[in-house]
Amino acid sequence: MSNKIYPVDAAYAAQTRITRAQYEALYAESVADPEGFWSRIAQRLDWIRPFTQVKDVSFAVEDFRIRWFADGALNVSANCLDRHLASRGDKTAIVFEGDDPADSRRITYRELHAEVCRAANLLRNLGIGKGDRVAIYLPMIPEAAVAMLACARIGAVHSVVFGGFSPDSLAGRIADSQCKLVITADEGLRGGKKVPLKANVDEALTRPGTTSVETVLVVRRTGAPIAMQTPRDRWWAALVAEQAAECAPEAVNAEDPLFILYTSGSTGKPKGVLHTSGGYLTYVSYTHECVFDLREDDVYWCTADVGWVTGHSYVVYGPLANGATTLMFEGVPNWPDISRFWQVVDKHQVTIFYTAPTAIRALMREGEEPVRRTSRQSIRLLGTVGEPINPEAWEWYHRVVGDGRCPIVDTWWQTETGGALITPLPGAIDAKPGSATLPFFGVKPAIVDTNGAVQEGACEGNLILTDSWPGQMRTVYGDHERFIDTYFRTYPGAYFTGDGARRDADGYYWITGRVDDVINVSGHRIGTAEVESALVAHPKVAEAAVVGCPHDLKGQGIYAYVTLKAGENGSEELRKELVQWVRKEIGPIASPDYLQWAPGLPKTRSGKIMRRILRKIAENATDQLGDTSTLADPGVVQNLVEQRLIRA
Ligand code: 6R9
């Protein structure tokens, strides 16, 4: 833990919207009177039917509800588009920077509005209505935002699936929410490499449970020849062009769903995190304005893919609800060369830059020169999200990327939380490298010990939230019991984040990482159970246990212990085959970094795998194995320790 403090810059503080004193006053108000506070903040949106109810929440499992602004109605797309037309019609809404540096364009609010209206009319003509689910499996191109907003315009529920997921992962998500339509592209393009998106969709739709899909709309991205199945598959551009550029926005109840986004948990299949309309948009637009201290002429760039929650909240919905200029980048940080991020910053005069620690660490490894050779003078604020940032990476980001003159906001949040919950406000809160600092307005974090006792003052334990905020997820799609069981039973009356945290004497929070069976690989959540079930699906595998291990670039890596069926041999060839297998089953982000053959796994007498021991072996902390006497066969540990793959 670094104890260095980076105070708010005096010049910054002099022109900020929220000073430290204002933060304290607003925070106090927000927790003392959440109804008054959030009813005022929600006025930043246009409501078709104004709400009279504000907060209706109970975290008690026997009387559970989370409802915000429940009798109000609005349209999310109208809030992101129509209301900006009078004052910002010619302002750039989206700057698109393609994978190829020669490929970029700007889309004004007026153009985006027209395109979204056409797409919404198309969806309606294809029989999509309020509440219907639409899967979006697209690269980082403007059509992804258009598709999301078109769904929102007609009250359809989108489910964006990251383009890096396999056909099986896509199929599972389509089947779980019974999507009627899929929007995809012929191919994706990242770092000069092609991703066969349409072919993946074709394969996914051969899987059981996917017959709900009636239509596949295909965006032409690379122009590669692809198979089109009639009448199922239709070209997006031709159909969109035929539609009227006006489309009356549907009045949507505040608590009607806006989207489902699948995320990994500690058990079972990925769960469909469901967010609703009024509270979500209020929360993401307000946090986006405060956390990034947004100004009218900012050019804001969040590098996240729309396949993740950060792309939903802080590439599309937050920025567009605020009438900001948001940059969508199709490519990767190191292509065509390692200066790409900073070339894009200079090219589009980006003022706010928001990325993940894993990207910072990868760039840091290449040294300062690739950064220094660019100007970056336009940047005034930096942000990070996705995983704890190590203080060295924070300092490098500050000193090299920001030339020591830009504040950094380290924003802690989750798919489930909708928007940032623990985060500095750049003109109000002094930074400490590695700390997400203090709670946002209305957010009540607490730290509990393993018995659930709330700790006071400086302490360490599990992070819970004792009250709701408008951006909170409302349910797991199709499985409300799982929602309650996962988040509200461990610590009664509170939302359990799954994260550990420390609070220091200044009240600052330091997130220490997941305390459940979720691995955070390069800021992406992977459930150990998912990787295990992919491994045991292989005909030669008898059993598998997967844990996280330290990884210099990714934050955490995936460490798999595999027991083969009798008669099988743990060859180098089979090891490679299993890694490829997982890649194919789930997607490249889930490929194990280490795969160790395990003649046996450490189990309790009741047959439960002792992951604590496997984690320690994977961390090379073999002196901290703790008590192994309760194991059914303590001998297996010795073999695993001897054969461990990390020894440095
Ligand atoms: C937004 C997003 C959520 C998990 C979360 C935590 C980790 C995210 C962090 C952070 C430390 C930060 N996490 N931001 N840890 N500092 N600033 O990443 O959502 O993909 O659902 O991941 O990521 O462990 O629980 P999601």
Automatic annotation (TrEMBL):
<feature type="binding site">
    <location>
        <position position="538"/>
    </location>
    <ligand>
        <name>Mg(2+)</name>
    </ligand>
</feature>
<comment type="similarity">
    <text>Belongs to the ATP-dependent AMP-binding enzyme family.</text>
</comment>
<dbReference type="InterPro" id="IPR025110">
    <property type="entry name" value="AMP-bd_C"/>
</dbReference>
<feature type="binding site">
    <location>
        <position position="525"/>
    </location>
    <ligand>
        <name>ATP</name>
    </ligand>
</feature>
<feature type="binding site">
    <location>
        <position position="583"/>
    </location>
    <ligand>
        <name>CoA</name>
    </ligand>
</feature>
<feature type="binding site">
    <location>
        <position position="334"/>
    </location>
    <ligand>
        <name>CoA</name>
    </ligand>
</feature>
<dbReference type="Pfam" id="PF00501">
    <property type="entry name" value="AMP-binding"/>
</dbReference>
<keyword id="KW-0007">Acetylation</keyword>
<dbReference type="InterPro" id="IPR011904">
    <property type="entry name" value="Ac_CoA_lig"/>
</dbReference>
<dbReference type="Pfam" id="PF13193">
    <property type="entry name" value="AMP-binding_C"/>
</dbReference>
<dbReference type="GO" id="GO:0003987">
    <property type="term" value="F:acetate-CoA ligase activity"/>
</dbReference>
<feature type="binding site">
    <location>
        <begin position="386"/>
        <end position="388"/>
    </location>
    <ligand>
        <name>ATP</name>
    </ligand>
</feature>
<feature type="binding site">
    <location>
        <position position="541"/>
    </location>
    <ligand>
        <name>Mg(2+)</name>
    </ligand>
</feature>
<dbReference type="InterPro" id="IPR045851">
    <property type="entry name" value="AMP-bd_C_sf"/>
</dbReference>
<feature type="domain" description="Acetyl-coenzyme A synthetase N-terminal">
    <location>
        <begin position="23"/>
        <end position="80"/>
    </location>
</feature>
<keyword id="KW-0547">Nucleotide-binding</keyword>
<protein>
    <recommendedName>
        <fullName>Acetyl-coenzyme A synthetase</fullName>
        <ecNumber>6.2.1.1</ecNumber>
    </recommendedName>
</protein>
<keyword id="KW-0460">Magnesium</keyword>
<dbReference type="InterPro" id="IPR000873">
    <property type="entry name" value="AMP-dep_synth/lig_dom"/>
</dbReference>
<feature type="binding site">
    <location>
        <position position="499"/>
    </location>
    <ligand>
        <name>ATP</name>
    </ligand>
</feature>
<dbReference type="InterPro" id="IPR032387">
    <property type="entry name" value="ACAS_N"/>
</dbReference>
<feature type="binding site">
    <location>
        <position position="536"/>
    </location>
    <ligand>
        <name>Mg(2+)</name>
    </ligand>
</feature>
<comment type="function">
    <text>Catalyzes the conversion of acetate into acetyl-CoA (AcCoA), an essential intermediate at the junction of anabolic and catabolic pathways. AcsA undergoes a two-step reaction. In the first half reaction, AcsA combines acetate with ATP to form acetyl-adenylate (AcAMP) intermediate. In the second half reaction, it can then transfer the acetyl group from AcAMP to the sulfhydryl group of CoA, forming the product AcCoA.</text>
</comment>
<feature type="binding site">
    <location>
        <position position="522"/>
    </location>
    <ligand>
        <name>CoA</name>
    </ligand>
</feature>
<dbReference type="Pfam" id="PF16177">
    <property type="entry name" value="ACAS_N"/>
</dbReference>
<feature type="binding site">
    <location>
        <begin position="190"/>
        <end position="193"/>
    </location>
    <ligand>
        <name>CoA</name>
    </ligand>
</feature>
<feature type="domain" description="AMP-dependent synthetase/ligase">
    <location>
        <begin position="82"/>
        <end position="465"/>
    </location>
</feature>
<feature type="domain" description="AMP-binding enzyme C-terminal">
    <location>
        <begin position="530"/>
        <end position="608"/>
    </location>
</feature>
<feature type="binding site">
    <location>
        <position position="310"/>
    </location>
    <ligand>
        <name>CoA</name>
    </ligand>
</feature>
<feature type="modified residue" description="N6-acetyllysine">
    <location>
        <position position="608"/>
    </location>
</feature>
<keyword id="KW-0067">ATP-binding</keyword>
<feature type="binding site">
    <location>
        <position position="514"/>
    </location>
    <ligand>
        <name>ATP</name>
    </ligand>
</feature>
<dbReference type="InterPro" id="IPR042099">
    <property type="entry name" value="ANL_N_sf"/>
</dbReference>
<keyword id="KW-0479">Metal-binding</keyword>
<feature type="binding site">
    <location>
        <begin position="410"/>
        <end position="415"/>
    </location>
    <ligand>
        <name>ATP</name>
    </ligand>
</feature>
<keyword id="KW-0436">Ligase</keyword>
<dbReference type="InterPro" id="IPR020845">
    <property type="entry name" value="AMP-binding_CS"/>
</dbReference>
